[in-house]
Amino acid sequence: MQEAVGQEVARERTGEANVPTTFTDYWKGVGPGIVIAVAWLGTGDLVDSSVAGANYGYALMWAIVIALCCRYFTTCMLAKYQLCNGVGDETVLTGFGRLWRGFPLLLAAASTALGFIYASYLLKAAGTALWNITGRIGGEGWGTFVFAALIVAFSVFLALTPNQYRGLEIVAQIAVIAVLIAFFIALINTGVDIGGFLSGLTPFKLPPDVGAFSALLVTVSVIGAVGGSAANLIYPYLMRDKGWRGPRYRTLQTYDLIVGVASLVFINLAIWVVAAETLPGRGETIASADDLAAMMEQAVGAIGPTLMWIAIFFIAFDNIPAYSYGFTRILVEAVHETFPARGARYAHAARTGSHGDSPVVHSSEGDVSKEELAKSETSTRDPIFRYTQIGLLIILPLIFSLPGLADFIVLTIVANAMAVLTAPIILLGVILITNNRRWMLSEYRNKWWENLILLVIAGIGLWATYGVIKSIADLLFGGG
Asked: Which of 30, 278, 356, 441 has the fewest CB atoms lying closer than 10 Å?
């Protein structure tokens, strides 16, 4: 009994969570998977699934199934390295740094740029949604901007709260409930064409182009939004904030991620089916925010647009602080990996500021280094963290909400198509670090089938990257 109590105290002092032993404990332990699922969902999934379903019916549904499988497996491999490496690496970025010192900073630069692009369309989406929910006060242009500015103010407030992760969990849970209610109601009204649904799962079939976006661009955008990008790197940081450290949390992590991805499967397919059952055959497509509202009005009546705007608002609102927090953590820790002296300086400040001057915690499980305990606080103490999170990834993207700039539908499609460019780089790093005999615990090194799946995903990522380049070239130079 005393030993159990001692272990409990030790985990509290080290910031580690309890290891669940029952189904109820596992269910209570779920958290990072829901947060990252809503972060992945973004308006990206909602918009891309709506555009694909409205413009192409069920024809491209295979893309979202492949994308979700890719995303789950890739993220699970990232989590496996962080939990099951044998060299004490606290983050995946440290593992990438073992491959090449500049690797973490390269990923961080790409992640920060991606975070800015995401924040730009998320702010405009949230502002547009809130403007519609509140009765379109102040005209579309400046009304949207004012509401986006209010969202920026609240996001800054959330960013300055002591426990950002808990706030993200709460907002994520609200967002999931809002989206589920909205599209469950719509799904009941529209029904499902079972034959069309099954035929839409036939892979790699591209229908003729319809509407403003080509079938290839929409497919690539779906894979970019759902299948994988630098956004996958955020999940391991959420795990650390939850207190999951070491192989004993691997089962909980797998269960947690399954719950998150399962919710994404249902939501994405529900969105897609509603769009596919509502617009195809009517000569209508989705090319603007108002088209989304019109789709929901056809699906469920007068309440439809309000349901759609509520869903868009909560998803976008949750993603703004989630992405600004996650991508900034990646950036600062990459800087500390590349420039160890800077990291050591802020690690010392975190260690002495939060844990006193003693270098270790004495517990029944052994002496734990204060250096490790302060790791999660180190990045947030660096001034780069606040400047990037609040200045670059929350406030500056507000410029895209000014009147006269692109509709958030266009921003979303283009941004998520660009997101696939980071996927091949990340996959290469994952394959190398999870197979290394010196770094991984022997029982957790990749099996042959895991490597095969990663190689297939890498192939899909390269194909998606080619699609982005081709689509951009066609747009710029009028290619066929």
From this structure: 356
Do the beta carbons of residue 238 and residue 83 sit within 8 Å? no
Residue scoring higher pLDDT (461 or 426): 426
What tokens does 282 get?
């009517």
Token pair of 249 as six digits: 């949390």
Cβ atoms of residues 36 and 67 within 8 Å: no
Least Cα distance to 20 among 312, 257, 249 occurs for 249
- Residue 122 and residue 42 in contact, taking contact as beta carbons nearer than 8 Å: yes
Query: In Å, what is the CA distance from 460 to each residue of 269, 333, 417?
Result: 21, 29, 13
Please give the residue range of the domain that contains residue 141.
Answer: 2-6+36-473
Torsion of CA 314, 318, 320, 324, to 10 degrees: 180
Is residue 20 one of the residues assigned to a domain?
Answer: no
Alpha-helix runs per DSSP H in 243-395: 250-278, 289-300, 304-338, 340-355, 370-373, 375-381, 383-386
Count Cβ atoms within 10 A of the Cβ of residue 142 and give its class: 0-12 exposed, 13-18 middle, 19 or more buried. Answer: middle
Quote the Cα angle for 259-263-268, to 5°.
Answer: 150
Per-residue tokens: 37:
């699922």
List the structure tokens of 60.
Answer: 């491209």
Residue 394 lies in a domain: yes
Q: Which residues pair with 440 in a beta bridge?
A: 85
The region that residue 236 occupies, defined by phi over 0 for left and psi between -120 and 50 for alpha, beta otherwise, is alpha
Per-residue CA distances from 115 to 119, 123, 178, 313, 454 (Å)? 6, 12, 24, 18, 25
Please give the structure tokens belonging to residue 328.
């900034």
Instruction: Provide the CATH number for the domain around residue 129.
Output: 1.20.1740
- Total count of domains within the chain: 1
Q: What is the pTM of this model?
A: 0.81
Quote the CA–CA distance of 254 and 242 in Å, as a whole number: 14
